[in-house]
Each structure stands twice: as C-alpha cells, then as structure tokens.
C-alpha cells in the first residue's frame, strides 16, 4: 500500500517518458509574478492606448447613455454625478480600487461613522484611489458582519493637505477585480493581463522592425576583402554612395559589368498577419472584451457580423450596471439625507435598434394590436393609450379624443 507521499495523481508512461522525469512538461509550473506598482500602472494607462481602452471600455459603455434616478416618485438630478461615477469606475480598473469620498456636514469628525439623519448638506464628491488611501484599522469583532473589513482609512499626506483618518461609511468603494484578502486592495485588471499585453506589443514591434528591412539591397564587389585589407575603405564607401545616388536620381544603377553586381532581396511576410490576429484574440480573451470592440475593427470572414460577441458583451455590461445600482442608491440617499427613501435607478437600453429594426418592430406591434382588436381583447382607445401615450411616437391623445367627440356630436 502506497503512503500518501508516494502517490502521484497523474498519468505516467515509463516507455514514452510521459509524466516521468524525462517529460519536459512536468517542469512547467506557475511562479509568482512581479506586482505592478500604482505609479507604473498609472504610466501604462497614460502611455499605452490598448491598456487605456481596456480600462475605459466597460465603464464608458455602462454610462454611455447615463441613467435616471427617482427618489420617492420624484426625479433626482445631481450635476456631474455620472462623470464622477465613471471616473471612479475607470480608476478602480486601473488601480484595483477607487472610492468616492462623500464630504457632508453632519456635525461629526471624519473618523466617525456617517450619520445620515444629521446631514445638512453635501459639500463635495471626490474620487480617491489606492495612491491616496491606505488601510488604517479593521473591524476586529468576530460577531460583526463587517469582521475583517476596513473600518478606517488614512488619507495620505501631500503638499496640499495633512494626513486624515476617514471612516469607511464616508467612502463608497469601487473594485475593479476581486480579492482573496479583505485586508488588501484588489489588484488592477492590468496585473493579470500584463504578460499578454507585453507579448502583444512585442509582436507588433517586431513586425514593424521587419518592415524596415522588407527589401534589402545587396551590393557585390569583386575583391572586397583585399580592398578592406589594403585600407581602401574610403574608396569603397564613395563607390557605394555613387551607386545609391545614381539609383535615386535616374532610377537606374551604374555597375561595372565585370566586377560589380547589385540585387534586392524581399522578405516574405506570409503567416505574420495570421499570428498577429491570434495575438489580438489572445489579448481580447485576457481582457474579456470582444476583439471587434477592443481593436475597433469590423468582424471579418463570411457571414461574420460580430453580433453574438457584442450581445454577449452587452449582457456583461448590463450585469455590471446591476451591480452598480446599490452604490448609486446609497449615494443618492446620502445626498438627499433620506436613509429610508425609495430609490429607483433606470438605465436606457444598451443595444440601439436601426431604423429598419424599429420599423419591423412597429409592424409586429401593429399586427398584434389588430388581432387584439378583432378578438375584442382591447378597445381602440386602449391600444392608442398603450402605443402612443409615450415614447418616440407619442401624440396628444386628449386633443384626439376631443376631435372624436366633436365628430360624434356633428353626426345626425
């Protein structure tokens, strides 16, 4: 009977070497990579267009058409709220975490729990990231629902302000990724895809270097070694300059028929476009984005529309929007000082229909309404209210009803 230490839960073949010490693949293992610093992440975002697109695409799509807030059946608008939330979402993806610091007048210090019922007004909404904040203390009561989570944050000192301790209730957190340790900030989304991003740019840079040598001129000269050995290098350089000058001026080359020869060799680029395409797919998979949106290119190939990828992406964006709702609701309750208010967040549709799709939808609705009218399920007035009381095709039904009543009154 084998002991636990002697067991190997894998396949082995001693004859072929599969799974044994002769198998090279058994030496492949994961090593902990270098953690990217906040300053380096900032530089990547500022100077790398692909990294910036990866960080911005989802937040911009989430809030592309904004959202509406209704508090106790009344519309609520705060100027600049969408821009502040978008900024927090983007920075959470760059740095791993970002926070909206809600500055309110509630008569308490910043290191005390926020008192919503005492809020007089909201003075500011500032977006902070992991460069601005550090963990100060954590909830240490095992019987508390917040056990292990940060209780106080320290706003790092700078030239403009002194270090300040802020209670977590005054901060609305945004996390770009998940973390296994609540005592640490989550990693940036760029951390995990950094090796793939590196390989992607290396492939494109290598291709760009190949383009500079796409066609290489080769000049053959009889007695080259003896000329170099006899210190006639200057004469050789002058001769090559003369050849290049004559080629540029007359588009022809003057050569000695007996001693000289010139040809141009072209580099073959077959297979490179396919490799670059696979690199794009690999990067899109790592970033969890459709390659058509990440690279800004139309889908290629027969019957390729990219519609399925785009719809799948929009489903992900819709899920992110739903996850964002509690944060917006919490922020709205703080800004209105109504802790028990009924807040409704509504997002417009992500998928915008074309004119042809809109016309087809109206045709199907009209056909459905015709069946309902024929079967007596609905009255004409009910159909009118249902289809034309709101939306893009809204009409003034009250004036229409008045005209109908006038027509009936004029009838004998």
From TrEMBL:
<dbReference type="InterPro" id="IPR006445">
    <property type="entry name" value="Phage-assoc_HI1409"/>
</dbReference>
<dbReference type="Pfam" id="PF06381">
    <property type="entry name" value="Phage_portal_3"/>
</dbReference>
<protein>
    <submittedName>
        <fullName>DUF1073 domain-containing protein</fullName>
    </submittedName>
</protein>
<dbReference type="InterPro" id="IPR024459">
    <property type="entry name" value="Acb1-like_N"/>
</dbReference>
<feature type="domain" description="Anti-CBASS protein Acb1-like N-terminal">
    <location>
        <begin position="42"/>
        <end position="370"/>
    </location>
</feature>
């Amino acid at each position: 009977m084998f002991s636990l230490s002697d067991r190997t839960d894998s396949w082995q073949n001693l004859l072929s070497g599969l799974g044994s010490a002769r198998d090279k693949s058994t030496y492949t293992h994961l090593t902990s990579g270098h953690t990217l610093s906040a300053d380096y992440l900032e530089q990547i975002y500022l100077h790398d267009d692909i990294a910036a697109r990866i960080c911005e695409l989802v937040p911009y799509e989430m809030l592309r058409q904004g959202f509406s807030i209704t508090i106790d059946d009344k519309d609520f608008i705060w100027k600049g709220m969408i821009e502040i939330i978008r900024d927090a979402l983007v920075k959470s993806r760059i740095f791993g975490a970002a926070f909206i610091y809600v500055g309110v007048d509630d008569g308490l210090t910043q290191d005390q729990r926020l008192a919503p019922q005492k809020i007089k007004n909201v003075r500011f909404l500032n977006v902070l990231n992991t460069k601005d904040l550090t963990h100060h203390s954590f909830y240490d009561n095992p019987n508390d629902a917040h056990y292990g989570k940060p209780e106080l944050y320290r706003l790092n000192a700078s030239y403009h302000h002194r270090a300040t301790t802020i209670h977590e209730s005054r901060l609305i957190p945004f996390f770009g990724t998940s973390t296994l340790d609540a005592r640490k900030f989550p990693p940036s989304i760029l951390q995990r895809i950094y090796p793939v991003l590196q390989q992607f740019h290396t492939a494109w840079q290598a291709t760009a270097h190949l383009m500079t040598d796409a066609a290489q001129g080769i000049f053959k000269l009889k007695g080259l070694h003896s000329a170099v050995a006899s210190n006639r290098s200057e004469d050789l350089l002058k001769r090559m300059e003369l050849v290049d000058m004559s080629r540029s001026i007359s588009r022809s080359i003057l050569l000695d028929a007996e001693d000289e020869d010139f040809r141009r060799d072209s580099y073959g680029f077959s297979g490179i476009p396919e490799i670059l395409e696979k690199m794009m797919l690999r990067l899109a998979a790592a970033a969890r984005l459709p390659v058509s949106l990440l690279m800004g290119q139309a889908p290629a190939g027969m019957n390729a529309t990219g519609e399925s990828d785009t719809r799948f992406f929009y489903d992900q964006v819709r899920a992110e929007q739903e996850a964002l709702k509690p944060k917006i609701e919490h922020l709205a309750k703080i800004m209105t000082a109504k802790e028990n208010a009924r807040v409704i967040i509504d997002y417009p549709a992500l998928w915008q229909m074309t004119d042809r799709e809109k016309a087809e939808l109206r045709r199907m609705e009209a056909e459905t309404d015709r069946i309902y009218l024929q079967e007596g399920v609905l009255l004409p007035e009910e159909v009118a209210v249902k289809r034309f009381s709101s939306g893009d095709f809204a009409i003034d039904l009250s004036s229409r009803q008045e005209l109908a009543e006038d027509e009936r009154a004029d009838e004998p």
